[in-house]
Design brief:
mainly alpha; 17 helices; 83% helix
Protein backbone atom coordinates (compact mmCIF):
# COMPACT_ATOMS: atom_id res chain seq x y z
CA UNK A 1 0.00 0.00 0.00
CA UNK A 2 2.95 2.33 0.61
CA UNK A 3 4.55 1.93 -2.85
CA UNK A 4 3.91 0.65 -6.36
CA UNK A 5 0.99 1.30 -8.71
CA UNK A 6 -2.03 2.62 -6.80
CA UNK A 7 -4.67 1.48 -9.26
CA UNK A 8 -3.16 -2.03 -9.42
CA UNK A 9 -3.04 -2.09 -5.63
CA UNK A 10 -6.65 -0.97 -5.37
CA UNK A 11 -7.72 -3.65 -7.83
CA UNK A 12 -5.70 -6.36 -6.04
CA UNK A 13 -7.04 -5.27 -2.64
CA UNK A 14 -10.67 -4.66 -3.61
CA UNK A 15 -11.36 -7.66 -5.88
CA UNK A 16 -11.38 -10.25 -3.06
CA UNK A 17 -13.44 -7.80 -1.01
CA UNK A 18 -15.88 -7.37 -3.92
CA UNK A 19 -16.16 -11.13 -4.32
CA UNK A 20 -16.69 -11.47 -0.55
CA UNK A 21 -19.45 -8.86 -0.54
CA UNK A 22 -21.12 -10.22 -3.66
CA UNK A 23 -21.02 -13.76 -2.30
CA UNK A 24 -22.51 -12.54 0.97
CA UNK A 25 -25.33 -10.90 -0.98
CA UNK A 26 -25.82 -14.01 -3.11
CA UNK A 27 -26.19 -16.08 0.02
CA UNK A 28 -28.50 -13.46 1.55
CA UNK A 29 -30.43 -13.39 -1.72
CA UNK A 30 -31.13 -17.06 -1.09
CA UNK A 31 -33.46 -15.87 1.70
CA UNK A 32 -35.39 -13.69 -0.73
CA UNK A 33 -35.41 -16.21 -3.57
CA UNK A 34 -36.42 -19.21 -1.45
CA UNK A 35 -39.20 -17.21 0.22
CA UNK A 36 -40.29 -15.67 -3.09
CA UNK A 37 -40.44 -19.05 -4.81
CA UNK A 38 -41.61 -21.36 -2.04
CA UNK A 39 -43.45 -18.94 0.25
CA UNK A 40 -46.21 -16.40 -0.31
CA UNK A 41 -46.08 -12.81 -1.59
CA UNK A 42 -46.70 -11.72 2.00
CA UNK A 43 -43.65 -13.68 3.16
CA UNK A 44 -41.50 -11.97 0.53
CA UNK A 45 -42.92 -8.58 1.51
CA UNK A 46 -42.28 -9.38 5.20
CA UNK A 47 -38.59 -10.13 4.58
CA UNK A 48 -38.28 -7.01 2.40
CA UNK A 49 -39.94 -4.84 5.03
CA UNK A 50 -37.11 -5.46 7.50
CA UNK A 51 -34.20 -5.52 5.05
CA UNK A 52 -33.39 -1.90 5.83
CA UNK A 53 -33.10 -2.80 9.54
CA UNK A 54 -30.69 -5.64 8.78
CA UNK A 55 -28.65 -3.36 6.54
CA UNK A 56 -28.48 -0.79 9.34
CA UNK A 57 -27.04 -3.32 11.83
CA UNK A 58 -24.44 -4.61 9.39
CA UNK A 59 -23.41 -1.13 8.25
CA UNK A 60 -23.14 0.24 11.78
CA UNK A 61 -20.76 -2.53 12.80
CA UNK A 62 -18.83 -2.30 9.53
CA UNK A 63 -18.21 1.42 10.10
CA UNK A 64 -17.39 0.93 13.78
CA UNK A 65 -14.95 -1.74 12.67
CA UNK A 66 -13.42 0.72 10.20
CA UNK A 67 -12.13 2.59 13.25
CA UNK A 68 -9.97 -0.45 13.99
CA UNK A 69 -8.95 -0.64 10.31
CA UNK A 70 -7.82 2.99 10.23
CA UNK A 71 -6.00 2.84 13.58
CA UNK A 72 -4.23 -0.45 12.78
CA UNK A 73 -3.35 0.81 9.29
CA UNK A 74 -1.90 4.03 10.66
CA UNK A 75 0.23 2.09 13.15
CA UNK A 76 1.42 -0.25 10.40
CA UNK A 77 2.49 2.74 8.33
CA UNK A 78 4.35 4.14 11.34
CA UNK A 79 5.99 0.76 12.10
CA UNK A 80 4.38 0.36 15.57
CA UNK A 81 3.83 -3.41 15.83
CA UNK A 82 2.93 -3.52 19.55
CA UNK A 83 0.26 -0.88 19.01
CA UNK A 84 -1.21 -2.98 16.17
CA UNK A 85 -1.51 -5.98 18.50
CA UNK A 86 -3.27 -3.84 21.10
CA UNK A 87 -5.79 -2.74 18.46
CA UNK A 88 -6.55 -6.39 17.61
CA UNK A 89 -7.47 -7.27 21.19
CA UNK A 90 -9.30 -4.08 22.10
CA UNK A 91 -11.34 -4.23 18.88
CA UNK A 92 -12.38 -7.82 19.64
CA UNK A 93 -13.53 -6.92 23.15
CA UNK A 94 -15.36 -3.83 21.91
CA UNK A 95 -17.15 -5.78 19.17
CA UNK A 96 -18.44 -8.37 21.63
CA UNK A 97 -19.75 -5.76 24.07
CA UNK A 98 -21.42 -3.69 21.37
CA UNK A 99 -22.96 -6.78 19.76
CA UNK A 100 -24.54 -7.93 23.02
CA UNK A 101 -25.84 -4.44 23.81
CA UNK A 102 -27.48 -4.02 20.39
CA UNK A 103 -28.99 -7.52 20.63
CA UNK A 104 -30.70 -6.70 23.93
CA UNK A 105 -31.95 -3.34 22.66
CA UNK A 106 -33.22 -4.72 19.35
CA UNK A 107 -35.08 -7.61 21.00
CA UNK A 108 -37.27 -5.18 22.94
CA UNK A 109 -37.54 -2.45 20.29
CA UNK A 110 -38.33 -4.41 17.12
CA UNK A 111 -42.17 -4.35 17.45
CA UNK A 112 -42.09 -0.57 17.81
CA UNK A 113 -39.66 -0.24 14.88
CA UNK A 114 -41.96 -2.25 12.61
CA UNK A 115 -44.93 -0.09 13.57
CA UNK A 116 -42.89 3.04 12.90
CA UNK A 117 -42.13 1.67 9.42
CA UNK A 118 -45.91 1.38 8.83
CA UNK A 119 -45.59 -2.35 8.18
CA UNK A 120 -49.00 -3.55 6.90
CA UNK A 121 -51.04 -5.74 9.22
CA UNK A 122 -50.98 -8.71 6.84
CA UNK A 123 -47.17 -8.96 6.97
CA UNK A 124 -46.46 -7.56 10.45
CA UNK A 125 -46.47 -10.94 12.23
CA UNK A 126 -44.23 -12.54 9.61
CA UNK A 127 -41.73 -9.65 9.78
CA UNK A 128 -41.66 -9.90 13.57
CA UNK A 129 -41.04 -13.65 13.46
CA UNK A 130 -38.24 -13.23 10.92
CA UNK A 131 -36.51 -10.60 13.08
CA UNK A 132 -36.75 -12.64 16.28
CA UNK A 133 -34.83 -15.43 14.56
CA UNK A 134 -32.24 -12.98 13.22
CA UNK A 135 -31.58 -10.88 16.32
CA UNK A 136 -29.52 -13.58 18.17
CA UNK A 137 -27.03 -13.37 15.31
CA UNK A 138 -26.20 -9.69 15.92
CA UNK A 139 -23.12 -10.40 18.13
CA UNK A 140 -21.72 -12.52 15.30
CA UNK A 141 -22.29 -9.65 12.84
CA UNK A 142 -20.39 -7.29 15.14
CA UNK A 143 -17.47 -9.67 15.68
CA UNK A 144 -17.19 -10.57 12.00
CA UNK A 145 -17.08 -6.95 10.82
CA UNK A 146 -14.45 -5.98 13.38
CA UNK A 147 -12.41 -9.09 12.60
CA UNK A 148 -12.60 -8.51 8.85
CA UNK A 149 -11.68 -4.86 9.41
CA UNK A 150 -8.54 -5.93 11.30
CA UNK A 151 -7.45 -8.21 8.45
CA UNK A 152 -8.14 -5.47 5.88
CA UNK A 153 -5.74 -3.18 7.73
CA UNK A 154 -2.84 -5.32 6.52
CA UNK A 155 -4.30 -5.91 3.07
CA UNK A 156 -5.73 -9.37 3.70
CA UNK A 157 -9.08 -9.59 1.92
CA UNK A 158 -8.72 -13.14 0.62
CA UNK A 159 -9.31 -15.15 3.79
CA UNK A 160 -12.59 -13.38 4.67
CA UNK A 161 -13.67 -14.36 1.14
CA UNK A 162 -12.92 -18.03 1.80
CA UNK A 163 -14.77 -17.90 5.11
CA UNK A 164 -17.85 -16.38 3.47
CA UNK A 165 -17.87 -19.12 0.84
CA UNK A 166 -18.06 -21.74 3.59
CA UNK A 167 -20.66 -19.97 5.73
CA UNK A 168 -22.69 -18.84 2.72
CA UNK A 169 -22.89 -22.33 1.26
CA UNK A 170 -24.11 -23.54 4.64
CA UNK A 171 -26.72 -20.77 4.63
CA UNK A 172 -28.10 -21.81 1.24
CA UNK A 173 -28.31 -25.48 2.21
CA UNK A 174 -30.04 -24.68 5.50
CA UNK A 175 -32.46 -22.32 3.72
CA UNK A 176 -33.58 -25.07 1.38
CA UNK A 177 -33.93 -27.60 4.21
CA UNK A 178 -35.74 -25.32 6.66
CA UNK A 179 -38.16 -23.80 4.14
CA UNK A 180 -39.03 -26.58 1.67
CA UNK A 181 -39.26 -29.91 3.57
CA UNK A 182 -39.57 -28.43 7.10
CA UNK A 183 -41.89 -25.57 5.96
CA UNK A 184 -40.53 -23.10 8.53
CA UNK A 185 -41.13 -20.16 6.13
CA UNK A 186 -39.58 -16.87 7.37
CA UNK A 187 -38.41 -18.50 10.60
CA UNK A 188 -36.37 -20.96 8.55
CA UNK A 189 -34.49 -18.35 6.52
CA UNK A 190 -33.90 -16.33 9.69
CA UNK A 191 -32.44 -19.31 11.56
CA UNK A 192 -30.26 -20.28 8.61
CA UNK A 193 -28.84 -16.76 8.40
CA UNK A 194 -28.04 -16.63 12.11
CA UNK A 195 -26.23 -19.98 12.11
CA UNK A 196 -24.19 -19.04 9.03
CA UNK A 197 -23.13 -15.75 10.66
CA UNK A 198 -21.66 -17.63 13.60
CA UNK A 199 -19.83 -19.97 11.24
CA UNK A 200 -18.06 -17.07 9.47
CA UNK A 201 -17.25 -15.40 12.81
CA UNK A 202 -15.71 -18.59 14.22
CA UNK A 203 -13.55 -18.96 11.11
CA UNK A 204 -12.25 -15.39 11.09
CA UNK A 205 -11.27 -15.41 14.77
CA UNK A 206 -9.75 -18.83 14.41
CA UNK A 207 -7.64 -17.31 11.67
CA UNK A 208 -6.52 -14.45 13.92
CA UNK A 209 -5.67 -16.88 16.71
CA UNK A 210 -3.30 -18.73 14.35
CA UNK A 211 -1.46 -15.62 13.13
CA UNK A 212 2.31 -15.47 13.76
CA UNK A 213 2.80 -11.68 13.63
CA UNK A 214 1.42 -8.66 15.48
CA UNK A 215 -2.10 -9.63 14.37
CA UNK A 216 -2.13 -12.77 16.54
CA UNK A 217 -5.18 -12.94 18.83
CA UNK A 218 -4.78 -14.37 22.35
CA UNK A 219 -7.84 -14.82 24.57
CA UNK A 220 -6.03 -13.68 27.72
CA UNK A 221 -5.23 -10.32 26.10
CA UNK A 222 -8.81 -9.51 25.08
CA UNK A 223 -9.75 -6.46 27.11
CA UNK A 224 -10.58 -2.79 26.71
CA UNK A 225 -7.94 -0.10 26.95
CA UNK A 226 -9.29 3.40 27.35
CA UNK A 227 -6.99 5.21 24.91
CA UNK A 228 -7.26 2.63 22.12
CA UNK A 229 -11.01 2.23 22.58
CA UNK A 230 -11.39 6.00 22.36
CA UNK A 231 -9.26 6.12 19.19
CA UNK A 232 -11.30 3.35 17.51
CA UNK A 233 -14.59 4.99 18.45
CA UNK A 234 -13.34 8.44 17.42
CA UNK A 235 -13.14 7.19 13.84
CA UNK A 236 -15.83 4.50 14.01
CA UNK A 237 -18.68 6.38 15.69
CA UNK A 238 -18.95 9.19 13.11
CA UNK A 239 -18.93 6.55 10.38
CA UNK A 240 -21.60 4.57 12.22
CA UNK A 241 -23.65 7.73 12.70
CA UNK A 242 -23.22 8.49 9.03
CA UNK A 243 -24.52 5.11 7.90
CA UNK A 244 -27.24 5.24 10.56
CA UNK A 245 -28.43 8.54 9.18
CA UNK A 246 -28.47 7.00 5.74
CA UNK A 247 -30.44 4.06 7.06
CA UNK A 248 -32.84 6.28 9.00
CA UNK A 249 -33.56 8.24 5.84
CA UNK A 250 -33.94 4.91 4.04
CA UNK A 251 -36.37 3.79 6.75
CA UNK A 252 -38.43 6.92 6.11
CA UNK A 253 -38.42 6.03 2.42
CA UNK A 254 -39.24 2.39 3.26
CA UNK A 255 -42.21 3.58 5.32
CA UNK A 256 -43.40 5.57 2.30
CA UNK A 257 -42.91 2.50 0.09
CA UNK A 258 -44.86 0.36 2.58
CA UNK A 259 -47.79 2.77 2.30
CA UNK A 260 -48.26 1.65 -1.32
CA UNK A 261 -49.04 -1.95 -0.25
CA UNK A 262 -47.56 -5.48 -0.35
CA UNK A 263 -47.06 -5.65 -4.14
CA UNK A 264 -44.91 -2.51 -4.21
CA UNK A 265 -43.09 -3.77 -1.11
CA UNK A 266 -42.34 -7.10 -2.77
CA UNK A 267 -41.03 -5.45 -5.95
CA UNK A 268 -38.85 -3.08 -3.98
CA UNK A 269 -37.53 -5.92 -1.82
CA UNK A 270 -36.34 -7.83 -4.88
CA UNK A 271 -34.92 -4.72 -6.60
CA UNK A 272 -33.19 -3.61 -3.42
CA UNK A 273 -31.46 -6.97 -3.16
CA UNK A 274 -30.27 -6.66 -6.77
CA UNK A 275 -28.99 -3.10 -6.44
CA UNK A 276 -26.98 -4.08 -3.38
CA UNK A 277 -24.65 -6.08 -5.63
CA UNK A 278 -23.55 -2.84 -7.28
CA UNK A 279 -23.35 -0.92 -4.00
CA UNK A 280 -21.18 -3.46 -2.15
CA UNK A 281 -18.80 -3.62 -5.11
CA UNK A 282 -18.34 0.15 -5.03
CA UNK A 283 -18.08 0.05 -1.23
CA UNK A 284 -15.25 -2.49 -1.53
CA UNK A 285 -13.27 -0.03 -3.64
CA UNK A 286 -14.01 2.73 -1.10
CA UNK A 287 -12.82 0.54 1.78
CA UNK A 288 -9.66 -0.28 -0.17
CA UNK A 289 -9.00 3.43 -0.76
CA UNK A 290 -9.53 4.14 2.96
CA UNK A 291 -6.94 1.50 3.92
CA UNK A 292 -4.46 2.95 1.42
CA UNK A 293 -5.07 6.48 2.71
CA UNK A 294 -4.74 5.52 6.40
CA UNK A 295 -1.43 3.70 5.91
CA UNK A 296 0.04 6.50 3.78
CA UNK A 297 -1.24 9.03 6.29
CA UNK A 298 0.74 7.23 9.00
CA UNK A 299 3.81 7.34 6.74
CA UNK A 300 3.23 11.00 5.81
CA UNK A 301 3.06 10.24 2.07
CA UNK A 302 0.58 12.91 0.95
CA UNK A 303 1.33 12.79 -2.77
CA UNK A 304 0.26 9.14 -2.74
CA UNK A 305 -2.86 9.99 -0.72
CA UNK A 306 -3.90 12.52 -3.38
CA UNK A 307 -3.49 9.93 -6.13
CA UNK A 308 -5.46 7.40 -4.06
CA UNK A 309 -8.38 9.81 -3.70
CA UNK A 310 -8.55 10.56 -7.43
CA UNK A 311 -7.94 7.06 -8.75
CA UNK A 312 -10.13 5.44 -6.10
CA UNK A 313 -13.08 7.72 -6.91
CA UNK A 314 -12.77 7.06 -10.65
CA UNK A 315 -12.43 3.31 -10.09
CA UNK A 316 -15.49 3.24 -7.82
CA UNK A 317 -17.52 5.26 -10.34
CA UNK A 318 -16.51 2.90 -13.16
CA UNK A 319 -17.62 -0.12 -11.14
CA UNK A 320 -20.95 1.58 -10.42
CA UNK A 321 -21.48 2.53 -14.05
CA UNK A 322 -20.83 -0.94 -15.45
CA UNK A 323 -22.69 -2.96 -12.80
CA UNK A 324 -25.51 -0.44 -12.29
CA UNK A 325 -26.37 -0.07 -15.96
CA UNK A 326 -25.98 -3.81 -16.50
CA UNK A 327 -28.47 -4.52 -13.72
CA UNK A 328 -30.96 -2.03 -15.15
CA UNK A 329 -30.68 -3.41 -18.69
CA UNK A 330 -31.32 -6.95 -17.40
CA UNK A 331 -33.89 -5.82 -14.81
CA UNK A 332 -36.88 -7.97 -15.79
CA UNK A 333 -35.13 -11.35 -16.15
CA UNK A 334 -33.19 -10.71 -12.94
CA UNK A 335 -36.32 -9.76 -11.00
CA UNK A 336 -38.09 -12.86 -12.32
CA UNK A 337 -35.59 -14.93 -10.35
CA UNK A 338 -37.06 -13.44 -7.16
CA UNK A 339 -40.76 -13.38 -7.98
CA UNK A 340 -43.18 -14.33 -10.76
CA UNK A 341 -45.65 -11.58 -9.80
CA UNK A 342 -45.77 -9.32 -12.89
CA UNK A 343 -46.90 -6.24 -10.97
CA UNK A 344 -44.11 -6.65 -8.41
CA UNK A 345 -41.56 -7.04 -11.22
CA UNK A 346 -42.67 -3.76 -12.80
CA UNK A 347 -42.33 -1.99 -9.47
CA UNK A 348 -38.83 -3.42 -9.20
CA UNK A 349 -37.96 -2.08 -12.67
CA UNK A 350 -39.00 1.41 -11.57
CA UNK A 351 -36.67 1.24 -8.56
CA UNK A 352 -33.71 -0.08 -10.56
CA UNK A 353 -34.16 2.69 -13.13
CA UNK A 354 -34.05 5.37 -10.44
CA UNK A 355 -31.12 3.92 -8.48
CA UNK A 356 -28.99 1.51 -10.51
CA UNK A 357 -28.72 3.56 -13.71
CA UNK A 358 -27.00 6.53 -11.95
CA UNK A 359 -25.28 4.43 -9.25
CA UNK A 360 -21.82 5.68 -10.29
CA UNK A 361 -22.68 8.92 -8.44
CA UNK A 362 -23.03 6.96 -5.21
CA UNK A 363 -19.62 5.37 -5.82
CA UNK A 364 -17.94 8.76 -6.00
CA UNK A 365 -19.73 9.94 -2.85
CA UNK A 366 -18.75 6.85 -0.85
CA UNK A 367 -15.09 7.00 -1.91
CA UNK A 368 -14.79 10.68 -0.97
CA UNK A 369 -16.37 9.90 2.39
CA UNK A 370 -14.08 6.96 3.25
CA UNK A 371 -10.97 8.91 2.26
CA UNK A 372 -12.05 11.71 4.56
CA UNK A 373 -12.29 9.13 7.37
CA UNK A 374 -8.90 7.73 6.39
CA UNK A 375 -7.44 11.17 7.08
CA UNK A 376 -9.02 11.11 10.54
CA UNK A 377 -11.86 13.54 9.75
CA UNK A 378 -14.69 11.07 10.33
CA UNK A 379 -16.91 13.55 12.21
CA UNK A 380 -16.84 15.97 9.28
CA UNK A 381 -17.83 13.17 6.91
CA UNK A 382 -20.81 12.24 9.08
CA UNK A 383 -21.97 15.85 9.33
CA UNK A 384 -21.79 16.38 5.58
CA UNK A 385 -23.81 13.22 4.97
CA UNK A 386 -26.38 14.34 7.55
CA UNK A 387 -26.94 17.67 5.86
CA UNK A 388 -26.49 16.49 2.28
CA UNK A 389 -27.87 13.03 1.69
CA UNK A 390 -30.26 12.52 4.59
CA UNK A 391 -31.47 16.10 4.70
CA UNK A 392 -32.32 16.08 1.00
CA UNK A 393 -34.30 12.84 1.21
CA UNK A 394 -36.25 13.64 4.35
CA UNK A 395 -37.01 17.20 3.18
CA UNK A 396 -38.41 15.86 -0.10
CA UNK A 397 -40.57 13.22 1.59
CA UNK A 398 -42.20 15.69 3.96
CA UNK A 399 -42.71 18.42 1.36
CA UNK A 400 -43.07 17.73 -2.38
CA UNK A 401 -43.83 14.00 -1.97
CA UNK A 402 -46.94 14.89 0.03
CA UNK A 403 -48.49 16.59 -3.01
CA UNK A 404 -50.62 14.43 -5.38
CA UNK A 405 -48.45 15.20 -8.42
CA UNK A 406 -45.25 13.83 -6.86
CA UNK A 407 -46.81 11.11 -4.68
CA UNK A 408 -45.46 8.19 -6.73
CA UNK A 409 -42.74 5.61 -6.14
CA UNK A 410 -40.68 7.03 -9.03
CA UNK A 411 -40.53 10.54 -7.57
CA UNK A 412 -39.88 9.07 -4.15
CA UNK A 413 -36.86 7.09 -5.34
CA UNK A 414 -35.35 9.90 -7.42
CA UNK A 415 -34.33 11.52 -4.13
CA UNK A 416 -31.43 9.05 -4.04
CA UNK A 417 -29.42 10.31 -7.07
CA UNK A 418 -30.25 13.91 -6.17
CA UNK A 419 -28.78 13.41 -2.69
CA UNK A 420 -25.67 11.70 -4.10
CA UNK A 421 -24.84 14.71 -6.27
CA UNK A 422 -25.35 17.26 -3.49
CA UNK A 423 -23.34 15.26 -0.95
CA UNK A 424 -20.46 14.49 -3.33
CA UNK A 425 -19.91 18.19 -4.05
CA UNK A 426 -19.84 19.01 -0.34
CA UNK A 427 -17.53 16.07 0.49
CA UNK A 428 -15.07 17.06 -2.24
CA UNK A 429 -14.78 20.57 -0.79
CA UNK A 430 -14.24 19.34 2.77
CA UNK A 431 -11.81 16.61 1.67
CA UNK A 432 -9.64 19.16 -0.16
CA UNK A 433 -9.58 21.31 2.98
CA UNK A 434 -8.72 18.35 5.26
CA UNK A 435 -5.92 17.26 2.91
CA UNK A 436 -4.33 20.72 3.01
CA UNK A 437 -4.63 20.90 6.81
CA UNK A 438 -3.03 17.51 7.46
CA UNK A 439 -0.21 18.11 4.97
CA UNK A 440 0.52 21.46 6.60
CA UNK A 441 0.71 19.80 10.04
CA UNK A 442 3.07 17.09 8.82
CA UNK A 443 5.49 19.14 6.73
CA UNK A 444 6.94 21.28 9.57
CA UNK A 445 8.03 18.11 11.42
CA UNK A 446 9.39 16.44 8.32
Amino acid sequence: MLDGSIIKGLVRFSLPLIFSSVLQLLFNAADIIVIGRFGSSNSLAAVGAVSVILSLCALVFMHLGSGATVLAGKNIGAGKKAAVNDVVHVATSLALLLGLAVTAAMWHAIPYILRTLQTPTEVFGLSLTYMYWLIPGIPAIALYNFGAGILRAKGDTKRPLYFLIVSGAANVIMNLIFVIPLKMDVAGVGLATTISQYISTFLIYGCLALEKDEFKLEVKKIKLKRDITASILRVGIPGAIQCSLFSISNMVIQAAVNSFGPVVMAGNAAASNLENFTWVSMAAVSQAAMSFTSQNFGAGNFSRIKKTIIQGSLFSAAVGLVLGMGTYILARPLLFVYTTNAAAIEEGVVRLGCLCAPYCLCGIMDCLSTNLRGLGHAAVSALVVLLGACGTRILWIFTAFQTPRFHTTRWLLLTYPASWIITSIALALFLARAFRQERARFEPSA
